[in-house]
């Protein structure tokens, strides 16, 4: 009894303590707010430079510093220009792209990523790291797919929440972006999205919702596009009603850079911090242009004249103060660290786990330790990829290329390199890391040289794919073609004709067409892997690491297979006036990614969740904690055995299929997963919890999630197209 009292007492004390932390924060917010003048209040809700906003020196409130995001901390820019500041102390650890993180299907890796990159941000003196990006991959052509977490809302939500908590454990705010419906780069400022509520809530919002409810994110970035005719950086429905209303978000809504267009809407519709509204540089402005921001002098004038009262202003200031008190003003000692050996190890661990073995016929891979001659081909074996892609472009402290990695991993082999094709020989990232890889040879000569080199090789490994140049995996432009660029198909075909054991390594953040795949026995999806690229790829090729990544999006065979088929769906209908609004409708509704391919019976090139291993896994029978769903949840369990000769990890994927519903439902939807590590011969039981939401659809008429009574199949497997066992549940 005494013990019980003690436990209750301790719990009660803990509750009081944690409540008082929050209370203390709110008290400080109110105290600062009560001392601020109107000018000081409007002074903290808009930028004062490209990446910072002002504090209130009189009250000891410091400036707030933001920076991109999401794969490392962006180099310093000029105060009022995008050009690099030219500092020599801002080279960083580059982490794998977020598609790679999603491909790990490992929440611990997301936590590690967040903690590690957050420490770099802290060390660089940043309060807000502009990431992660969680927009859903709606079309393979979107230029920013590589910065996002794939096509499935459940996977994106599960990966973004630990990333956010990890970043924020350093006293640095994450800023989940781009909220919402920013699913293409083409006309991103001018496209007005029409979408039904069900698709909005089921596909495009859940990752943001998880960022708020489970990641407890401290800031959210509004997107450039419009929804229901209003820009999403000041949209009453998405910000006031959904984000702050339905989800209870108490942090700051930061505009995307240049995403604010109107003072009245920004006042009324929930914009808390305005960034990036065009200035043309201190040298060309008569006055500091930041005073002309929509939430600066124009707002102040309205307040002074009494046209608007201070209600919204105080709410914005509270949110910005909260953000400051959680980060730079939190009074805790977070030193952070940068470029530490540990950070390299973190980047390597994530990169290794995200690489996906797409195909491995005749066990071509791993490369034997006895290999005498390895021929490495393709521009992507030598091309630096940290730089480029626009705002996520980074200055890497070092970036190990695949070729360097392979040379280091096979010190006794002769490693020969041939370029084979020339893509984008130069790349520039805001005036830093300009490099030039121009090759004087003609394409014919380059191919002939490659074909000559491969003849007596033990292994031939071609590195192709996309890169971070405009119209590839790059912000601001979408890809114009689903095919591989720079004539790579011709090169791969020619190589496959002379080598039936060709290994193709695809470097990209988006799916690409592989019309020659039947002639190529082995393929890897290698993403953009950051500083440790070469080591991670070489470890997987050599079998030092057994691949365990799974695709976070489908590779369709062709663009024609995609759900996006009409101009209205993509890119939208062009306006009559030159700078008008493009009208777009997501007529495919909830049928995005595998939901579409499965409903239409279209066999993809590689399915969502696909990824092979150098070992094999056998699944036992799926079992439920209860055949009927009661109360809050049900547990699915399944035993998995490593039946091969090497240790490895398997991602056990749990999909739910509604057998009878009053609405049209996808064939199945991902609702749970777990990654399990197994030694050869080892068996483990994997448990996955399913809550009521896992069985629900969003009922637009009732505006709520509804789980209808009836039977559901719980499908458990190694990929969306590789279900190994299933069990029925009655609700
Ligand atoms: C991008 C954001 C980025 C911001 C600041 C914008 O163009 O859309 O993702 O964080 O610039 O660089």
Write the layout of secondary structure elements.
Layout: H1 2-35, H2 38-43, E1 52-53, E2 64-68, H3 98-104, H4 107-123, E3 128-130, H5 153-168, E4 173-179, E5 191-194, H6 197-204, H7 206-213, E6 219-222, E7 226-227, E8 230-231, H8 236-246, E9 252-254, H9 263-268, H10 297-305, H11 311-326, H12 341-354, E10 356-360, E11 373-377, H13 402-409, E12 414-418, E13 426-429, E14 432-436, H14 443-454, E15 459-465, H15 488-498, E16 503-507, E17 522-525, H16 533-542, E18 582-585, H17 594-599, E19 617-619, E20 623-624, E21 633-642, E22 648-658, E23 669-678, E24 683-691, E25 697-699, E26 704-706, E27 711-719, E28 722-730
Helix pairs in contact: 1-11, 3-12, 4-5, 4-12, 5-7, 12-16, 13-16, 14-15
This protein binds beta-D-glucopyranose.
Beta-D-glucopyranose (BGC) binds next to loops.
Q: What tags apply to this protein structure?
A:
globular; 20% strand; 27% helix; six-stranded mixed β-sheet; alpha/beta; binds beta-D-glucopyranose; 731 residues
In short:
This protein is an alpha/beta fold. It contains 17 helices and 28 strands.
What would you note in describing this structure?
There is one protein chain. By secondary structure, the chain is an alpha/beta fold. Helix 1 (2-35) packs across helix 11, helix 13 (402-409) crosses helix 16 and helix 14 packs parallel to helix 15. The strands form 7 sheets. The protein has a 6-stranded mixed beta sheet with strand order 1-2-3-4-6-9. 55% of the residues are buried. The mean pLDDT is 94. Beta-D-glucopyranose (BGC) binds at residues 68-69, 130, 177, 256-257, 391.
């Amino acid at each position: 009894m005494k013990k019980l009292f003690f436990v209750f007492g301790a719990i009660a004390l803990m509750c009081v303590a944690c409540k008082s932390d929050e209370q203390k924060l709110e008290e400080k917010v109110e105290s600062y707010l009560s001392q601020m003048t109107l000018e000081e209040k409007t002074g903290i809700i808009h930028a004062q430079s490209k990446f910072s906003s002002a504090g209130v020196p009189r009250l000891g409130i410091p400036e707030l510093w933001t920076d991109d995001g999401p794969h490392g901390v962006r180099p310093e820019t000029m105060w009022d220009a995008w050009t690099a500041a030219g500092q020599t102390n801002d080279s960083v650890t580059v982490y794998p792209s977020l598609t790679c993180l999603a491909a790990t299907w490992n929440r611990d890796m997301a936590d590690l990523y967040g903690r590690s990159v957050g420490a770099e941000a802290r060390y660089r003196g940043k309060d807000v790291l502009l990431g992660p990006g969680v927009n859903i991959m709606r079309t393979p052509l979107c230029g920013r797919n590589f910065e996002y977490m794939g096509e499935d809302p459940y996977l994106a939500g599960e990966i973004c929440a630990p990333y956010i908590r990890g970043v924020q454990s350093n006293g640095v705010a994450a800023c989940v972006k781009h909220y919402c419906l920013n699913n293409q780069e083409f006309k991103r400022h001018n496209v007005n999205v029409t979408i039904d509520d069900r698709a909005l809530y089921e596909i495009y919002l859940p990752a943001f919702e998880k960022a708020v409810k489970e990641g407890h994110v401290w800031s959210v970035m509004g997107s450039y596009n419009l929804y229901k005719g209003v820009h999403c950086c000041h949209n009453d429905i998405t910000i006031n009603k959904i984000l702050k209303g339905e989800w209870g978000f108490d942090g700051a809504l930061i505009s995307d850079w240049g995403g604010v267009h109107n003072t009245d809407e920004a006042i009324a519709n929930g914009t808390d911090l305005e960034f990036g509204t065009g200035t043309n540089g201190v040298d060309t402005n008569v006055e500091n242009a930041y005073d002309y921001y929509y939430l600066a002098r124009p707002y102040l004038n309205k307040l002074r004249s009494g046209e608007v009262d201070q209600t919204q202003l105080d709410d914005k200031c509270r949110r910005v103060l909260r953000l400051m008190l959680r980060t730079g003003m939190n009074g805790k000692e977070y030193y952070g660290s940068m470029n530490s050996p540990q950070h390299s190890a973190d980047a390597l661990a994530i990169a290794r786990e995200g690489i996906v073995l797409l195909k491995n016929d005749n066990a071509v891979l791993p490369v034997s330790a006895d290999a005498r001659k390895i021929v490495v081909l393709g521009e992507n074996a030598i091309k630096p990829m940290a730089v480029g892609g626009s705002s996520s472009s980074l200055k890497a402290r070092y970036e190990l290329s695949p070729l360097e990695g392979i040379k280091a991993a096979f010190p006794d082999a002769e490693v020969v390199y041939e370029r084979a094709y020339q893509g984008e020989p130069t790349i520039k990232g805001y005036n830093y890391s300009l490099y030039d890889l121009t090759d004087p040879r003609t394409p014919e000569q380059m191919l002939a040289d490659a074909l000559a080199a491969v003849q007596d090789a033990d292994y031939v490994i071609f590195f192709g794919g996309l890169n971070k140049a405009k119209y590839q995996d790059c912000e601001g432009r979408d890809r114009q073609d689903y095919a591989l660029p720079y004539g790579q198909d011709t090169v791969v075909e020619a190589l496959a004709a002379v080598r039936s054991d060709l290994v193709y390594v695809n470097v990209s953040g988006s799916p690409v067409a592989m019309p020659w795949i039947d002639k190529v026995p082995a393929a890897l999806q290698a993403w953009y892997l950051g500083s440790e690229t070469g080591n991670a790829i070489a470890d997987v090729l050599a079998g030092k690491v057994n691949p365990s990544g799974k695709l976070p999006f489908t590779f369709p065979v062709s663009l024609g297979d995609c759900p996006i088929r009409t101009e209205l769906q993509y890119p939208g209908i062009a306006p009559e006036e030159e700078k008008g609004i493009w009208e777009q409708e997501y007529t495919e509704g909830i049928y995005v990614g595998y939901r579409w391919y499965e409903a239409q019976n279209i066999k993809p090139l590689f399915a969502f969740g696909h990824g092979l291993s150098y070992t094999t896994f056998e699944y036992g029978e799926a079992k439920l904690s209860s055949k009927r769903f009661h109360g809050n949840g049900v547990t699915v369990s399944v035993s998995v055995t490593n039946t091969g000769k090497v240790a490895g990890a398997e991602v056990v994927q749990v999909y739910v299929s509604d057998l009878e519903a009053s609405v049209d439902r996808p064939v199945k939807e991902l609702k749970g997963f777990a990654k399990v590590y197994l030694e050869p011969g080892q068996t483990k039981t994997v448990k996955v919890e399913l809550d009521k939401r896992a069985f629900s659809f969003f009922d637009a008429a009732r505006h709520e999630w509804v789980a209808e009574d009836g039977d559901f199949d719980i499908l458990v497997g190694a990929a969306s197209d590789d279900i190994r066992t299933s069990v029925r549940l009655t609700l």
